[in-house]
Amino acid sequence: MKQHVLITGASKGIGFALTKLFLEKGFAVTAASRRIQYADLQYSDFHSLALDLSDPSSIKRSVGEIKEKGIQFDILINNAGVGPDLNAVKPDTTTYHETFAVNTEGTVFFTEAMLPFIKKGGKIINISSKMGSVALCTGTDSPAYRMSKAALNMYTRILAEKYRGTFLVAALHPGWVRTTLSPTNIHGRLSPEQSAQGIYEFVNSDFETDTFWNVETGDFCEW
Ligand SMILES: NC(=O)c1ccc[n+]([C@@H]2O[C@H](COP(=O)([O-])OP(=O)(O)OC[C@H]3O[C@@H](n4cnc5c(N)ncnc54)[C@H](OP(=O)(O)O)[C@@H]3O)[C@@H](O)[C@H]2O)c1
């Protein structure tokens, strides 16, 4: 039977490239995002799911849909993320709330609601960022983005410990990728497809739970 993966933030960027790659590799894919226009993905095992992580009622509705369909997932990839204060130097109330609503709060509560629908032995992958590493931090820019990803890393470690023996849990830095996450990402070193390939290889490797992995360098990342 095909393995089933749920990918959030699947409408563009890294998430869209991941969705295409997992489908090409023969997985069943549920692609979640606010916009659900996937006209060019003609696969029988492709499903789209409307999900706004910043809206608790949307999280409840989307998980309710999964429950109704009786789907059990092998892999959850929490890829959706925003960076409205990327490159800014001063914390700002609006962008702080926007960032935490999606990258942290929405991702945490979506994951908690999804736990009953992930198979025993399944994998939970949080697409974090090297910018969320407390150990490696030297920059002073992008305060909300950095803090939101540091919090996501902490959640990754809590999940890994709590569900040791049940799920494999990891955080990934996808590399500096040419997406629309911020205006400077146009200069990114990796294409979304290259990043997706590295993520795919990690997810399907024999990785240990509680790992923070840098997809661009192919090496561990310090928390
Ligand atoms: N690009 C990089 O260099 C880089 C580096 C480090 C980490 N990352 C991380 O990689 C992940 C993917 O980023 P990307 O570069 O591919 O960004 P992107 O091209 O901007 O895509 C972000 C995705 O998140 C979804 N999203 C945004 N707000 C959402 C919400 N409220 N609810 C549900 N989905 C939402 C978007 O879809 P809709 O707008 O349709 O909802 C979109 O599919 C993010 O977590 C990002 O922090 C990226």
Question: How is this structure best described in words?
Answer:
Helices cover 36% and strands 20% of the residues. The chain is of the alpha/beta class and 223 residues long. It has one domain (4-220): 3-Layer(aba) Sandwich (Rossmann fold). Strands 3-2-1-4-5-6-7-8 form an eight-stranded mixed beta sheet, sandwiched between helices. Helix 1 packs across helix 5 (192-203) and helix 2 packs parallel to helix 3. It is globular and about 45 Å long. The model has no long low-confidence stretch (mean pLDDT 97). The structure holds NADP nicotinamide-adenine-dinucleotide phosphate. Residues 8-15, 33-35, 51-54, 79-83, 102, 127, 129, 173-174, 176-177, 179-181, 185, 188 line the site of NADP nicotinamide-adenine-dinucleotide phosphate (NAP).
Provide a concise account of the structure shown.
The protein is of the alpha/beta class and 223 residues long.
Features:
223 residues; alpha/beta; Rossmann fold; 8-stranded mixed β-sheet; 5 helices; 8 strands; globular; binds NADP nicotinamide-adenine-dinucleotide phosphate
Strand neighbour order, sheet with most strands: 3-2-1-4-5-6-7-8
Q: What global shape is seen?
A: globular
Overall pLDDT: 97
Total number of beta strands: 8
Beta strand %: 15-25%
Based on CA atoms alone, the radius of gyration comes out at: 16 Å
H-E string: EHEEHEHEHEHEE
Q: What count of domains describes the coordinates?
A: 1
Which hetero ligands occur in this complex? NADP nicotinamide-adenine-dinucleotide phosphate
Helix count equals: 5
CATH architecture: 3-Layer(aba) Sandwich
